[in-house]
Amino acid sequence: MTTARLDEPAWRLRDRVARGECSAVEIAREALQRIEARDPDLGAFLWMDAEGALASAAQVDRARASGQPLGPLAGVPVAIKDNLCVRGTPTTCASKILEGWVAPYDAHVVERLRAAGAVIVGKTNLDEFAMGSSTERSAFRVTRHPLDRERSPGGSSGGSAVAVAAGMVPLALGSDTGGSVRQPAAFTGIVAIKPTYGRVSRYGLVAFASSLDQVGPMASDVRGAALGLDVIAGHDGRDATCSDRPVPEHMAAADQPARGLRVGVCRDGLEGCEPGVVRALELATQALRDAGVSTHDVALPHARLGVSVYYLIATAEASSNLARFDGVRYGLRIERGDALETTAATRATGFGPEVRRRIVLGTFVLSAGYYDAYYLKAARVRTLIIRDYEAVFARCDALLGPTSPTAAFRLGERLEDPLSMYLADVFTLPPSLAGLPAMHVPFGRDERGLPVGVQLVGRPFEEPTLVRLASALESRAPR
Amino acid sequence: MLLRRGGLRRERHVCYYGLALMSISRDEVRRIAELARLELDEPTLEALRADLARILDYVAELDTVDVSAVEPTFHAPPIDARLRPILPSTPLLREEVLAAAPRHEEGAFAVPRILEGS
Protein backbone atom coordinates (compact mmCIF):
# COMPACT_ATOMS: atom_id res chain seq x y z
CA MET A 1 0.00 0.00 0.00
CA THR A 2 1.42 3.40 -0.91
CA THR A 3 1.04 5.49 2.19
CA ALA A 4 1.13 9.23 2.42
CA ARG A 5 -1.59 9.51 5.02
CA LEU A 6 0.66 11.37 7.40
CA ASP A 7 0.86 14.22 4.92
CA GLU A 8 -2.82 14.78 5.59
CA PRO A 9 -4.00 17.13 8.33
CA ALA A 10 -5.08 15.84 11.74
CA TRP A 11 -8.82 16.27 11.17
CA ARG A 12 -8.78 14.32 7.89
CA LEU A 13 -6.77 11.47 9.40
CA ARG A 14 -9.31 11.24 12.21
CA ASP A 15 -12.16 11.11 9.67
CA ARG A 16 -10.41 8.33 7.75
CA VAL A 17 -10.05 6.31 10.95
CA ALA A 18 -13.68 6.96 11.87
CA ARG A 19 -14.86 5.82 8.43
CA GLY A 20 -12.69 2.73 8.57
CA GLU A 21 -10.59 3.75 5.56
CA CYS A 22 -7.46 2.95 7.53
CA SER A 23 -6.68 1.70 10.99
CA ALA A 24 -5.14 3.73 13.77
CA VAL A 25 -2.42 1.09 14.09
CA GLU A 26 -1.45 1.53 10.41
CA ILE A 27 -1.16 5.28 10.90
CA ALA A 28 0.82 4.88 14.12
CA ARG A 29 3.23 2.48 12.37
CA GLU A 30 3.68 4.96 9.54
CA ALA A 31 4.42 7.76 12.02
CA LEU A 32 6.94 5.63 13.91
CA GLN A 33 8.64 4.63 10.64
CA ARG A 34 8.86 8.22 9.55
CA ILE A 35 10.36 9.26 12.87
CA GLU A 36 12.93 6.46 12.57
CA ALA A 37 13.74 7.42 9.00
CA ARG A 38 13.76 11.20 9.29
CA ASP A 39 14.63 12.06 12.86
CA PRO A 40 18.26 10.90 13.09
CA ASP A 41 19.47 13.98 11.20
CA LEU A 42 16.68 16.36 12.31
CA GLY A 43 16.73 15.76 16.06
CA ALA A 44 13.10 16.60 16.77
CA PHE A 45 12.55 13.86 19.34
CA LEU A 46 14.14 13.18 22.71
CA TRP A 47 12.06 10.09 23.42
CA MET A 48 9.97 7.81 21.26
CA ASP A 49 7.25 5.64 22.74
CA ALA A 50 6.57 3.01 20.04
CA GLU A 51 5.01 0.56 22.44
CA GLY A 52 2.69 3.10 24.04
CA ALA A 53 1.73 4.54 20.65
CA LEU A 54 0.81 1.16 19.18
CA ALA A 55 -1.17 0.26 22.31
CA SER A 56 -3.19 3.52 22.16
CA ALA A 57 -3.77 3.02 18.43
CA ALA A 58 -4.96 -0.56 18.97
CA GLN A 59 -7.37 0.74 21.59
CA VAL A 60 -8.84 3.18 19.05
CA ASP A 61 -9.23 0.37 16.51
CA ARG A 62 -10.96 -1.85 19.08
CA ALA A 63 -13.32 0.98 20.03
CA ARG A 64 -14.24 1.47 16.39
CA ALA A 65 -14.73 -2.25 15.81
CA SER A 66 -17.13 -2.44 18.74
CA GLY A 67 -19.07 0.59 17.56
CA GLN A 68 -18.10 2.92 20.41
CA PRO A 69 -18.04 6.65 19.70
CA LEU A 70 -14.59 7.91 18.69
CA GLY A 71 -12.93 11.02 20.09
CA PRO A 72 -12.11 14.09 17.99
CA LEU A 73 -8.45 13.01 17.62
CA ALA A 74 -9.05 9.26 17.29
CA GLY A 75 -5.96 7.64 15.78
CA VAL A 76 -4.09 10.94 15.24
CA PRO A 77 -0.37 10.71 16.08
CA VAL A 78 0.67 13.59 18.35
CA ALA A 79 4.10 14.66 19.63
CA ILE A 80 4.51 16.33 23.02
CA LYS A 81 7.11 18.92 24.00
CA ASP A 82 9.34 17.49 26.68
CA ASN A 83 8.35 20.03 29.34
CA LEU A 84 4.90 18.42 29.58
CA CYS A 85 4.46 15.42 31.86
CA VAL A 86 3.48 12.16 30.18
CA ARG A 87 3.02 9.43 32.77
CA GLY A 88 5.69 6.74 32.65
CA THR A 89 7.95 8.56 30.19
CA PRO A 90 11.05 10.68 30.84
CA THR A 91 10.31 14.39 31.14
CA THR A 92 13.60 16.26 30.97
CA CYS A 93 12.87 19.82 29.78
CA ALA A 94 16.03 19.12 27.75
CA SER A 95 17.99 19.72 30.95
CA LYS A 96 20.62 17.59 32.63
CA ILE A 97 19.07 18.49 35.97
CA LEU A 98 16.01 16.40 35.09
CA GLU A 99 17.80 13.67 33.14
CA GLY A 100 16.29 10.33 34.02
CA TRP A 101 13.23 11.76 35.80
CA VAL A 102 10.11 9.83 34.84
CA ALA A 103 6.83 11.71 35.19
CA PRO A 104 4.49 9.95 37.64
CA TYR A 105 1.39 11.62 36.15
CA ASP A 106 -0.10 13.04 32.96
CA ALA A 107 -0.37 16.79 32.34
CA HIS A 108 -3.96 18.01 31.96
CA VAL A 109 -3.48 18.52 28.21
CA VAL A 110 -2.12 14.98 27.90
CA GLU A 111 -5.17 13.59 29.72
CA ARG A 112 -7.33 15.53 27.27
CA LEU A 113 -5.43 14.19 24.26
CA ARG A 114 -5.75 10.60 25.49
CA ALA A 115 -9.47 11.03 26.14
CA ALA A 116 -9.83 12.35 22.57
CA GLY A 117 -8.21 9.21 21.16
CA ALA A 118 -4.88 10.78 20.20
CA VAL A 119 -1.86 8.50 19.85
CA ILE A 120 1.14 9.96 21.69
CA VAL A 121 4.30 8.99 19.82
CA GLY A 122 7.01 10.71 21.86
CA LYS A 123 8.57 13.74 23.49
CA THR A 124 10.14 16.54 21.51
CA ASN A 125 13.26 18.63 21.92
CA LEU A 126 13.32 22.20 23.24
CA ASP A 127 15.69 24.84 24.51
CA GLU A 128 16.44 23.86 28.09
CA PHE A 129 13.39 24.73 30.24
CA ALA A 130 11.92 26.45 27.15
CA MET A 131 14.48 29.25 27.49
CA GLY A 132 15.63 30.07 24.00
CA SER A 133 14.53 30.81 20.47
CA SER A 134 16.53 28.26 18.45
CA THR A 135 16.38 24.83 20.20
CA GLU A 136 20.20 24.97 20.23
CA ARG A 137 20.10 25.29 24.01
CA SER A 138 18.92 21.72 24.54
CA ALA A 139 21.34 19.83 26.79
CA PHE A 140 20.90 16.74 24.62
CA ARG A 141 20.78 17.51 20.90
CA VAL A 142 20.40 20.24 18.32
CA THR A 143 17.22 20.25 16.25
CA ARG A 144 17.73 21.11 12.58
CA HIS A 145 15.51 22.79 10.03
CA PRO A 146 13.88 20.30 7.65
CA LEU A 147 14.55 22.50 4.60
CA ASP A 148 18.15 23.38 5.47
CA ARG A 149 20.12 21.36 8.01
CA GLU A 150 22.40 24.34 8.72
CA ARG A 151 19.48 26.44 9.91
CA SER A 152 17.57 26.53 13.18
CA PRO A 153 13.89 25.56 13.34
CA GLY A 154 13.40 28.29 15.95
CA GLY A 155 12.42 27.66 19.54
CA SER A 156 11.83 26.87 22.14
CA SER A 157 9.29 24.35 20.76
CA GLY A 158 11.61 23.55 17.83
CA GLY A 159 11.25 19.78 18.22
CA SER A 160 7.46 19.91 18.00
CA ALA A 161 7.67 22.27 15.01
CA VAL A 162 10.02 19.96 13.12
CA ALA A 163 7.97 16.86 13.99
CA VAL A 164 5.03 18.54 12.22
CA ALA A 165 6.94 20.30 9.42
CA ALA A 166 8.82 17.11 8.45
CA GLY A 167 5.61 15.11 8.28
CA MET A 168 6.30 12.88 11.28
CA VAL A 169 3.02 13.89 12.99
CA PRO A 170 0.20 16.23 11.85
CA LEU A 171 -0.21 17.74 15.34
CA ALA A 172 2.08 18.49 18.28
CA LEU A 173 1.89 20.38 21.54
CA GLY A 174 4.32 23.10 22.47
CA SER A 175 4.45 25.70 25.21
CA ASP A 176 4.62 29.44 24.64
CA THR A 177 5.91 31.90 27.23
CA GLY A 178 7.13 34.62 24.88
CA GLY A 179 6.70 33.13 21.41
CA SER A 180 7.84 29.53 21.76
CA VAL A 181 5.12 27.98 19.58
CA ARG A 182 4.73 30.91 17.17
CA GLN A 183 8.35 31.62 16.23
CA PRO A 184 9.29 27.97 15.47
CA ALA A 185 6.04 27.67 13.50
CA ALA A 186 7.13 30.73 11.51
CA PHE A 187 10.58 29.27 10.86
CA THR A 188 9.26 25.88 9.73
CA GLY A 189 6.09 27.00 7.90
CA ILE A 190 3.38 25.47 10.09
CA VAL A 191 0.43 26.84 12.09
CA ALA A 192 0.57 27.47 15.85
CA ILE A 193 -1.81 29.00 18.38
CA LYS A 194 -0.77 30.63 21.66
CA PRO A 195 -4.11 30.63 23.50
CA THR A 196 -5.37 33.36 25.80
CA TYR A 197 -3.78 33.24 29.23
CA GLY A 198 -6.12 30.99 31.23
CA ARG A 199 -7.64 29.19 28.23
CA VAL A 200 -5.59 25.99 28.76
CA SER A 201 -4.56 24.41 32.05
CA ARG A 202 -0.84 24.29 32.81
CA TYR A 203 -1.19 21.37 35.25
CA GLY A 204 1.74 19.11 34.36
CA LEU A 205 3.61 21.77 32.38
CA VAL A 206 6.97 22.43 34.02
CA ALA A 207 6.67 26.09 35.04
CA PHE A 208 8.95 28.72 33.48
CA ALA A 209 7.21 32.11 33.91
CA SER A 210 3.84 31.62 35.55
CA SER A 211 2.21 34.90 34.49
CA LEU A 212 2.93 34.07 30.83
CA ASP A 213 3.12 30.29 30.21
CA GLN A 214 0.48 28.69 27.98
CA VAL A 215 0.29 25.36 26.17
CA GLY A 216 -0.49 25.61 22.46
CA PRO A 217 -1.16 23.38 19.45
CA MET A 218 1.16 23.26 16.43
CA ALA A 219 -0.21 21.71 13.27
CA SER A 220 0.16 21.29 9.55
CA ASP A 221 -2.94 23.40 8.84
CA VAL A 222 -5.33 25.89 10.44
CA ARG A 223 -8.14 23.41 11.08
CA GLY A 224 -5.71 20.94 12.64
CA ALA A 225 -4.40 23.57 15.06
CA ALA A 226 -7.96 24.67 15.88
CA LEU A 227 -8.94 21.05 16.52
CA GLY A 228 -5.98 20.69 18.85
CA LEU A 229 -7.17 23.76 20.77
CA ASP A 230 -10.72 22.36 20.93
CA VAL A 231 -9.33 19.31 22.69
CA ILE A 232 -6.97 20.97 25.20
CA ALA A 233 -8.95 24.13 26.10
CA GLY A 234 -11.22 24.40 29.10
CA HIS A 235 -11.41 24.53 32.83
CA ASP A 236 -9.23 22.51 35.17
CA GLY A 237 -9.29 23.17 38.90
CA ARG A 238 -5.66 22.09 39.24
CA ASP A 239 -4.44 25.33 37.63
CA ALA A 240 -5.81 28.28 39.59
CA THR A 241 -5.37 30.62 36.63
CA CYS A 242 -7.40 28.40 34.30
CA SER A 243 -10.63 30.05 33.21
CA ASP A 244 -14.02 28.35 33.44
CA ARG A 245 -15.47 30.28 30.50
CA PRO A 246 -17.23 28.02 28.01
CA VAL A 247 -15.03 26.77 25.17
CA PRO A 248 -16.31 27.73 21.71
CA GLU A 249 -15.80 25.46 18.69
CA HIS A 250 -12.52 26.58 17.20
CA MET A 251 -12.34 24.18 14.26
CA ALA A 252 -15.86 25.06 13.17
CA ALA A 253 -14.77 28.71 13.06
CA ALA A 254 -12.48 27.83 10.13
CA ASP A 255 -15.62 27.44 7.99
CA GLN A 256 -17.00 30.85 8.90
CA PRO A 257 -16.18 33.61 6.43
CA ALA A 258 -13.90 36.40 7.59
CA ARG A 259 -15.90 38.97 5.60
CA GLY A 260 -16.79 42.05 7.61
CA LEU A 261 -14.10 41.67 10.26
CA ARG A 262 -11.92 44.68 11.04
CA VAL A 263 -8.20 44.04 11.27
CA GLY A 264 -5.57 46.45 12.50
CA VAL A 265 -2.24 46.23 10.70
CA CYS A 266 0.71 47.14 12.87
CA ARG A 267 3.80 48.22 10.92
CA ASP A 268 5.92 49.18 13.94
CA GLY A 269 9.36 47.62 13.79
CA LEU A 270 9.17 46.62 10.13
CA GLU A 271 12.43 48.49 9.45
CA GLY A 272 14.19 45.74 11.42
CA CYS A 273 12.63 42.93 9.38
CA GLU A 274 13.94 40.99 6.41
CA PRO A 275 12.36 41.97 3.06
CA GLY A 276 10.69 38.56 2.75
CA VAL A 277 8.91 39.09 6.07
CA VAL A 278 7.71 42.57 5.08
CA ARG A 279 6.49 41.24 1.75
CA ALA A 280 4.54 38.44 3.46
CA LEU A 281 2.81 41.02 5.64
CA GLU A 282 1.86 43.18 2.65
CA LEU A 283 0.58 40.17 0.69
CA ALA A 284 -1.38 38.86 3.68
CA THR A 285 -2.94 42.30 4.22
CA GLN A 286 -4.08 42.32 0.60
CA ALA A 287 -5.36 38.74 0.89
CA LEU A 288 -7.52 39.71 3.86
CA ARG A 289 -8.93 42.67 1.90
CA ASP A 290 -9.71 40.27 -0.93
CA ALA A 291 -11.62 38.19 1.62
CA GLY A 292 -13.79 41.18 2.52
CA VAL A 293 -11.89 42.15 5.67
CA SER A 294 -11.32 45.85 6.30
CA THR A 295 -7.78 46.73 7.27
CA HIS A 296 -6.69 49.73 9.31
CA ASP A 297 -3.25 51.05 10.19
CA VAL A 298 -2.73 50.97 13.93
CA ALA A 299 0.15 51.64 16.32
CA LEU A 300 1.18 50.04 19.59
CA PRO A 301 3.56 52.70 20.90
CA HIS A 302 4.84 50.72 23.90
CA ALA A 303 5.17 47.32 22.23
CA ARG A 304 8.76 48.22 21.28
CA LEU A 305 9.59 47.94 25.00
CA GLY A 306 8.31 44.36 25.11
CA VAL A 307 11.75 42.76 24.98
CA SER A 308 12.98 44.69 28.02
CA VAL A 309 9.77 44.15 29.97
CA TYR A 310 9.67 40.46 29.15
CA TYR A 311 13.29 39.67 29.97
CA LEU A 312 12.91 41.30 33.39
CA ILE A 313 9.55 39.75 34.28
CA ALA A 314 10.08 36.29 32.78
CA THR A 315 13.52 35.87 34.33
CA ALA A 316 12.23 37.04 37.72
CA GLU A 317 9.47 34.45 37.59
CA ALA A 318 11.83 31.77 36.29
CA SER A 319 14.33 32.34 39.09
CA SER A 320 11.53 31.64 41.54
CA ASN A 321 10.03 28.66 39.67
CA LEU A 322 13.38 26.97 39.12
CA ALA A 323 14.21 27.13 42.84
CA ARG A 324 12.49 23.74 43.11
CA PHE A 325 15.42 22.03 41.37
CA ASP A 326 17.44 21.49 44.51
CA GLY A 327 18.90 18.02 44.03
CA VAL A 328 16.44 16.54 46.51
CA ARG A 329 13.28 15.53 44.69
CA TYR A 330 14.10 15.00 41.05
CA GLY A 331 16.83 13.81 38.74
CA LEU A 332 20.38 14.93 39.29
CA ARG A 333 22.27 15.33 42.56
CA ILE A 334 25.94 16.29 42.91
CA GLU A 335 26.72 15.21 46.45
CA ARG A 336 28.85 17.68 48.53
CA GLY A 337 29.51 18.25 52.21
CA ASP A 338 26.17 19.60 53.33
CA ALA A 339 22.70 20.18 51.87
CA LEU A 340 23.34 23.77 50.79
CA GLU A 341 26.58 22.93 49.01
CA THR A 342 24.91 19.96 47.39
CA THR A 343 22.12 22.16 46.07
CA ALA A 344 24.53 24.79 44.70
CA ALA A 345 26.74 22.16 43.03
CA THR A 346 23.74 20.29 41.60
CA ARG A 347 22.25 23.46 40.12
CA ALA A 348 25.55 24.71 38.69
CA THR A 349 26.16 21.34 37.01
CA GLY A 350 22.59 20.58 36.01
CA PHE A 351 21.56 23.91 34.48
CA GLY A 352 23.04 24.99 31.16
CA PRO A 353 24.44 28.47 30.45
CA GLU A 354 21.22 30.17 29.28
CA VAL A 355 19.21 28.87 32.23
CA ARG A 356 21.93 29.99 34.64
CA ARG A 357 22.03 33.41 32.97
CA ARG A 358 18.27 33.85 33.34
CA ILE A 359 18.21 32.61 36.94
CA VAL A 360 20.96 35.08 37.86
CA LEU A 361 19.28 37.96 36.00
CA GLY A 362 15.91 37.09 37.59
CA THR A 363 17.42 36.82 41.07
CA PHE A 364 19.13 40.17 40.53
CA VAL A 365 15.97 42.03 39.48
CA LEU A 366 14.09 40.64 42.48
CA SER A 367 16.87 41.33 44.99
CA ALA A 368 16.72 44.04 47.62
CA GLY A 369 17.61 47.43 46.19
CA TYR A 370 16.84 46.52 42.56
CA TYR A 371 13.27 45.27 42.73
CA ASP A 372 11.70 48.70 42.25
CA ALA A 373 14.09 49.84 39.56
CA TYR A 374 13.77 46.72 37.41
CA TYR A 375 10.97 44.33 38.23
CA LEU A 376 8.40 46.86 39.38
CA LYS A 377 9.20 49.24 36.55
CA ALA A 378 8.81 46.42 34.02
CA ALA A 379 5.45 45.52 35.58
CA ARG A 380 4.30 49.14 35.15
CA VAL A 381 5.40 49.30 31.52
CA ARG A 382 3.55 46.01 31.04
CA THR A 383 0.39 47.91 31.97
CA LEU A 384 1.10 50.45 29.20
CA ILE A 385 1.53 47.65 26.65
CA ILE A 386 -1.83 46.19 27.72
CA ARG A 387 -3.49 49.61 27.38
CA ASP A 388 -2.15 49.94 23.83
CA TYR A 389 -3.90 46.71 22.91
CA GLU A 390 -7.13 47.78 24.65
CA ALA A 391 -7.17 50.96 22.60
CA VAL A 392 -6.67 49.06 19.35
CA PHE A 393 -9.25 46.39 20.17
CA ALA A 394 -11.87 49.07 20.81
CA ARG A 395 -12.03 49.50 17.03
CA CYS A 396 -10.49 46.32 15.57
CA ASP A 397 -11.42 42.65 15.91
CA ALA A 398 -7.85 41.44 15.50
CA LEU A 399 -4.32 42.59 14.74
CA LEU A 400 -2.03 41.53 11.93
CA GLY A 401 1.76 41.84 11.98
CA PRO A 402 4.95 39.84 11.64
CA THR A 403 5.66 36.83 13.85
CA SER A 404 9.45 36.91 13.54
CA PRO A 405 11.64 39.67 12.08
CA THR A 406 13.57 37.04 10.11
CA ALA A 407 13.05 33.70 8.44
CA ALA A 408 14.98 30.76 9.92
CA PHE A 409 18.47 31.94 10.91
CA ARG A 410 21.62 29.81 10.77
CA LEU A 411 22.59 27.51 13.62
CA GLY A 412 25.18 29.19 15.81
CA GLU A 413 24.45 32.63 14.39
CA ARG A 414 23.03 34.03 17.62
CA LEU A 415 24.22 31.51 20.17
CA GLU A 416 27.04 33.56 21.67
CA ASP A 417 25.01 36.77 21.88
CA PRO A 418 22.07 36.36 24.27
CA LEU A 419 20.63 39.78 23.45
CA SER A 420 20.46 39.07 19.70
CA MET A 421 18.61 35.84 20.53
CA TYR A 422 16.15 37.76 22.76
CA LEU A 423 15.45 40.21 19.92
CA ALA A 424 14.18 37.30 17.80
CA ASP A 425 11.05 37.48 20.00
CA VAL A 426 10.34 41.18 19.50
CA PHE A 427 6.91 40.63 17.88
CA THR A 428 5.73 37.66 19.92
CA LEU A 429 6.48 39.09 23.36
CA PRO A 430 3.93 41.95 23.57
CA PRO A 431 0.80 39.75 23.09
CA SER A 432 2.21 37.33 25.69
CA LEU A 433 2.69 40.14 28.19
CA ALA A 434 -0.93 41.17 27.59
CA GLY A 435 -2.21 37.58 27.92
CA LEU A 436 -3.79 37.75 24.45
CA PRO A 437 -4.38 34.88 22.02
CA ALA A 438 -1.96 34.92 19.10
CA MET A 439 -1.48 32.69 16.12
CA HIS A 440 1.12 32.14 13.44
CA VAL A 441 -0.15 31.56 9.90
CA PRO A 442 2.31 30.63 7.13
CA PHE A 443 2.13 32.88 4.07
CA GLY A 444 4.50 31.85 1.31
CA ARG A 445 8.27 31.74 1.20
CA ASP A 446 11.05 34.28 0.95
CA GLU A 447 13.53 34.60 -1.92
CA ARG A 448 15.66 31.79 -0.42
CA GLY A 449 12.68 29.44 -0.24
CA LEU A 450 12.38 29.71 3.55
CA PRO A 451 8.88 29.87 5.05
CA VAL A 452 7.53 33.25 6.12
CA GLY A 453 4.15 34.24 7.49
CA VAL A 454 2.18 36.50 9.78
CA GLN A 455 0.98 36.76 13.35
CA LEU A 456 -2.67 37.36 14.24
CA VAL A 457 -3.48 38.69 17.71
CA GLY A 458 -6.98 38.73 19.17
CA ARG A 459 -9.07 39.92 22.06
CA PRO A 460 -9.04 37.70 25.16
CA PHE A 461 -10.79 34.37 24.49
CA GLU A 462 -11.51 35.30 20.88
CA GLU A 463 -9.43 32.54 19.33
CA PRO A 464 -12.31 31.71 16.93
CA THR A 465 -11.88 35.13 15.28
CA LEU A 466 -8.21 34.34 14.71
CA VAL A 467 -9.13 30.96 13.21
CA ARG A 468 -11.60 32.62 10.80
CA LEU A 469 -8.93 35.05 9.61
CA ALA A 470 -6.26 32.34 9.49
CA SER A 471 -8.53 30.19 7.37
CA ALA A 472 -9.06 33.08 4.92
CA LEU A 473 -5.28 33.57 4.72
CA GLU A 474 -4.57 29.87 4.32
CA SER A 475 -6.85 29.55 1.31
CA ARG A 476 -5.15 32.55 -0.32
CA ALA A 477 -1.53 31.81 0.60
CA PRO A 478 1.03 31.92 -2.23
CA ARG A 479 1.95 28.44 -3.40
CA MET B 1 -5.50 49.91 50.27
CA LEU B 2 -2.46 49.34 52.44
CA LEU B 3 -0.75 47.66 49.51
CA ARG B 4 -1.55 50.61 47.34
CA ARG B 5 -0.01 53.00 49.81
CA GLY B 6 3.11 50.82 49.94
CA GLY B 7 3.29 50.99 46.18
CA LEU B 8 3.25 54.77 46.28
CA ARG B 9 6.01 54.88 48.85
CA ARG B 10 8.20 52.77 46.62
CA GLU B 11 7.72 55.32 43.88
CA ARG B 12 10.38 57.56 45.35
CA HIS B 13 12.97 54.80 45.06
CA VAL B 14 12.08 54.36 41.42
CA CYS B 15 13.08 57.96 40.84
CA TYR B 16 16.20 57.51 42.91
CA TYR B 17 17.45 54.48 40.97
CA GLY B 18 17.80 55.59 37.37
CA LEU B 19 18.31 52.45 35.30
CA ALA B 20 20.89 54.09 33.08
CA LEU B 21 23.18 54.50 36.08
CA MET B 22 23.24 50.79 36.74
CA SER B 23 26.25 48.64 36.11
CA ILE B 24 27.14 45.40 37.76
CA SER B 25 30.34 44.23 39.44
CA ARG B 26 31.81 40.75 39.70
CA ASP B 27 31.20 40.80 43.48
CA GLU B 28 27.57 41.66 42.86
CA VAL B 29 27.21 38.74 40.45
CA ARG B 30 28.92 36.45 42.98
CA ARG B 31 26.46 37.53 45.68
CA ILE B 32 23.48 36.99 43.35
CA ALA B 33 24.76 33.56 42.32
CA GLU B 34 24.98 32.64 46.01
CA LEU B 35 21.41 33.81 46.56
CA ALA B 36 20.36 31.71 43.54
CA ARG B 37 22.29 28.69 44.92
CA LEU B 38 24.57 28.40 41.93
CA GLU B 39 28.19 27.41 42.57
CA LEU B 40 30.03 29.18 39.74
CA ASP B 41 33.75 29.48 39.03
CA GLU B 42 35.47 32.81 38.32
CA PRO B 43 35.51 32.63 34.49
CA THR B 44 31.80 31.78 34.49
CA LEU B 45 31.07 34.66 36.88
CA GLU B 46 32.97 37.09 34.64
CA ALA B 47 31.15 35.91 31.51
CA LEU B 48 27.84 36.30 33.34
CA ARG B 49 28.80 39.76 34.53
CA ALA B 50 29.53 40.87 30.98
CA ASP B 51 26.23 39.43 29.69
CA LEU B 52 24.26 41.01 32.51
CA ALA B 53 25.90 44.38 31.99
CA ARG B 54 24.84 44.35 28.31
CA ILE B 55 21.30 43.21 29.11
CA LEU B 56 20.90 45.82 31.87
CA ASP B 57 22.23 48.45 29.50
CA TYR B 58 19.59 47.43 26.96
CA VAL B 59 16.67 47.43 29.41
CA ALA B 60 17.60 50.97 30.47
CA GLU B 61 15.33 51.95 27.55
CA LEU B 62 12.50 51.59 30.08
CA ASP B 63 13.71 54.92 31.48
CA THR B 64 12.32 56.60 28.38
CA VAL B 65 8.76 56.29 29.68
CA ASP B 66 7.33 57.89 32.77
CA VAL B 67 5.44 55.21 34.65
CA SER B 68 5.30 56.94 38.03
CA ALA B 69 1.50 57.13 37.85
CA VAL B 70 0.95 53.70 36.27
CA GLU B 71 -0.17 50.67 38.30
CA PRO B 72 1.96 47.56 37.79
CA THR B 73 0.53 44.41 36.20
CA PHE B 74 1.72 41.18 37.78
CA HIS B 75 -0.57 38.81 35.96
CA ALA B 76 -1.67 38.94 32.37
CA PRO B 77 -5.33 39.79 32.19
CA PRO B 78 -7.88 38.41 32.13
CA ILE B 79 -7.42 36.16 35.08
CA ASP B 80 -10.68 34.60 36.23
CA ALA B 81 -9.25 32.58 39.06
CA ARG B 82 -11.84 30.61 40.99
CA LEU B 83 -11.69 28.80 44.28
CA ARG B 84 -12.25 25.12 43.79
CA PRO B 85 -14.09 22.74 46.05
CA ILE B 86 -11.82 20.48 48.04
CA LEU B 87 -12.80 16.94 47.14
CA PRO B 88 -11.20 13.60 47.90
CA SER B 89 -8.93 12.53 45.06
CA THR B 90 -6.27 9.94 44.37
CA PRO B 91 -2.86 11.33 45.28
CA LEU B 92 0.35 10.30 43.57
CA LEU B 93 1.77 7.08 44.97
CA ARG B 94 4.60 7.70 47.40
CA GLU B 95 6.75 4.98 45.80
CA GLU B 96 6.39 6.53 42.36
CA VAL B 97 7.38 9.98 43.59
CA LEU B 98 10.32 8.64 45.55
CA ALA B 99 11.47 6.46 42.67
CA ALA B 100 12.16 9.66 40.69
CA ALA B 101 14.31 11.20 43.46
CA PRO B 102 18.10 10.90 43.56
CA ARG B 103 18.03 9.29 47.04
CA HIS B 104 15.34 8.11 49.39
CA GLU B 105 15.27 6.23 52.67
CA GLU B 106 12.43 4.82 54.74
CA GLY B 107 9.72 6.39 52.64
CA ALA B 108 11.24 9.89 52.59
CA PHE B 109 13.60 11.99 50.45
CA ALA B 110 17.12 11.63 51.82
CA VAL B 111 19.34 14.74 51.96
CA PRO B 112 22.88 15.42 53.15
CA ARG B 113 23.45 16.89 56.60
CA ILE B 114 21.69 20.23 57.10
CA LEU B 115 22.50 21.18 60.71
CA GLU B 116 25.89 21.17 62.42
CA GLY B 117 26.39 18.00 64.47
CA SER B 118 23.24 16.33 63.21
Radius of gyration of chain B from the CA trace?
A: 23 Å
Structural class of chain A: alpha/beta
* Quaternary structure classification: heterodimer
Shape of chain A: globular
Query: Would you identify the CATH H-level superfamily of the domain at 5-253 in chain A?
Result: Amidase signature (AS) domain
Largest sheet of chain B: 2 strands, antiparallel
Q: Give the terminus-to-terminus CA distance of chain A.
A: 29 Å
Annotate the secondary structure layout.
The complex is a heterodimer of chains A (479) and B (118).
Chain A (H helix, E strand, L loop, with lengths): L9 H10 L4 H15 L6 E4 L1 H16 L11 E5 L26 H8 L3 E6 L33 H8 L5 E6 L5 H7 L2 E4 L19 E6 L2 H11 L17 H4 L8 E5 L8 H16 L3 E5 L7 H16 L17 H12 L2 H14 L4 H23 L4 E4 L16 H5 L6 H5 L4 E8 L5 E8 L4 H14 L3
Chain B lengths: L1 H15 L9 H10 L6 H18 L34 H6 L4 E2 L2 E2 L9
Antiparallel strand pairs in B: 1-2
Helix pairs in contact in B: 2-3
Describe the fold and architecture.
Chain A has 479 residues and is an alpha/beta fold. Chain A has helices at 10-19, 24-38, 50-65, 108-115, 158-165, 182-188, 222-232, 250-253, 275-290, 306-321, 339-350, 353-366, 371-393, 418-422, 429-433, 463-476, and strands at residues 45-48, 77-81, 119-124, 171-176, 191-194, 214-219, 262-266, 294-298, 398-401, 438-445, 451-458. Chain A has a domain at 5-253: Amidase signature (AS) enzymes (Alpha-Beta Complex), CATH 3.90.1300. Chain A contains 16 helices and eleven strands. In chain A, helix 10 (306-321) crosses helix 12. Chain B has 118 residues and is mostly helical. Chain B contains four helices and two strands. Chain B has a two-stranded antiparallel sheet with strand order 1-2. In chain B, a hairpin with a 2-residue loop joins strand 1 and strand 2 (108-109). Classes of the chains: A alpha/beta (479), B mainly alpha (118). The interface between A and B is large, with 78 and 60 residues.
